[in-house]
Design goal:
- Four copies of one chain form a homotetramer.
- The first copy, chain A, is mainly alpha-helical.
- Chain A has a single domain, classed as Up-down Bundle (Substrate Binding Domain Of Dnak, Chain:A, Domain 2).
- Chain A is built from six helices and no strands.
- In chain A, helix 1 runs antiparallel to helix 2 (19-44) and helix 2 packs antiparallel against helix 5.
- Chain A is elongated.
- Chains in contact: A-B, A-C, A-D, B-C, B-D, C-D.
- Chains A, B, C, D: This is Four-helix bundle copper-binding protein.
- Chains A, B, C, D: It comes from Nonomuraea polychroma.
- Chains A, B, C, D: Residues 144-156 have a biased composition (Low complexity).
- Chains A, B, C, D: Residues 134-156 are annotated as: Disordered.
Chain lengths: 156, 156, 156, 156
């Protein structure tokens, strides 16, 4: 069990999403951010005749790393949960992993780091898409928004 | 003229958005991220009887700081521009500044730092909304996506 | 094997540090950053009578999260390696994990999230200290700094 | 007056550093981070025959951007101030701005974005060095560390 799941279990209020699923999404986002940071750097160390073909890939790596990292942080916070914000940021991460996964895939046969990074992007994109339906605000709400959203009930 | 605008002018290819407008959005995002980081910390130093009311505000500050900072970085990159990605991340930032602006506004009369931070959020939200129409892919495109998007033409 | 280690193995030049050790440091830093982000948020959801005692812990969590995350990124880059920079940032991370570990330890008996976070901080502090001697520039250098440092040889 | 300085003035406890100086350091760090992010991307859009010479510069830009941004956040927090942590992170930022300033300077005559970025790095390095003496713990302390450090007195 990763620290991520342990911390979800130790959160002092209810989180109305399956802890294991949420932890695996957060961990996927962080592994993807790490792969993208490493892939951007690996691209920079490719030989001079290869590097120019990789400039777009590097840019997409950098965006994807920053977006995945920010999204992991947003999904790690449950105090005053706002479904609209989580959904908008997850949507941006789905786009970032798709864009970067596409870029890296173009170079997978030539560069092992692009192949691995594309795999991390695709895996994270799938995990994010599977999470989206869980981030819907509940339909019947009686309290203020921060209390009726799926991830946060009343503090004990 | 800020470094942001100078750097846009020094970019070695065309950026098809007004440099001054884009620079002012990026600068607003960074000023907002800074205000949110400072507001979260100022809330933490409020007296014990005030702090519990500010926990949601702190959380929104932290999300808004991370999202604005990431969005500024995405908008500062023009190599291999992808309109879908920029738009999705800007959309998340619009939501983050709205959510955080609303949270801080609730405490504006009691806490000057919340009043100032709400102002930074509102200003950034307006700037982002004004930028959105400029991030549309151009309608008539002949080249591949990375060359037909508004922010990026062929490298010289 | 994590993506981190796979990416080190796929890097297109030599990295003169044991890949397994370096990967475990980077992974510890990211797990620690994640635990700190989650601990700050868990503290914010503690009851009103507990929250004021946790304000310093929250601040230390936020610093430690940002510093660990940045240090992981610095250690994930090997192009043009600069031992002085890596060492200075690792030193800052050693201090951040110590400070945060101390803060969280004070609340370990009352708050499980602080106990887990303190554990993540101590583990990361130990891993960073064990890495430091490996970041020394080699004594006998003939090339420019970027080529004589332990983490980077000539690109193949 | 920037939001940074306004937020320092609105902080609900004493900050024992001149607000204007501290604000100017934080603003310099954020302007430098922005310049570095933009310079890395501008380098990526340079022609194929120039790009390989810029790979180290891009790497230094990315480190410097992340480190400056993290350092700005650390210096923006005053709750439970820890002089050792601030000093260690500022030290890392001094090294990052020096390393990146040196890298960019090598390309200043060829690339305007490197010239501007080097200027931002040098300016920030100077501001950080001038701040260091202010981050010394006060010599005569009676309370616990968090109360005797220069940046933080007792909350009002």
């Amino acid at each position: 069990m990763t620290y991520t799941e342990k911390m979800l279990d130790a959160y002092p209020a209810e989180i109305n999403i399956d802890h294991r699923q949420l932890a695996s999404v957060i961990d996927a986002l962080e592994a993807c951010a790490q792969a993208c940071t490493a892939c951007a750097d690996a691209c920079l160390s490719e030989p001079a005749d290869r590097l120019p073909m990789l400039s777009r890939c590097i840019r997409d790596n950098l965006d994807c790393a920053a977006i995945c990292s920010t999204t992991a942080a947003v999904l790690s916070r449950h105090t005053g949960y706002d479904a609209n914000l989580s959904r908008a940021q997850v949507q941006a991460a789905i786009q970032a992993t798709k864009t970067c996964g596409d870029s890296c895939s173009e170079h997978s046969s030539r560069h092992e780091h692009c192949r691995i990074c594309a795999e991390a992007c695709r895996e994270t994109e799938r995990a994010l898409k599977a999470l989206m339906p869980q981030l819907e605000p509940t339909s019947a709400t009686t309290g203020p928004p921060s209390q009726s959203a799926p991830q946060q009930q009343q503090p004990r």
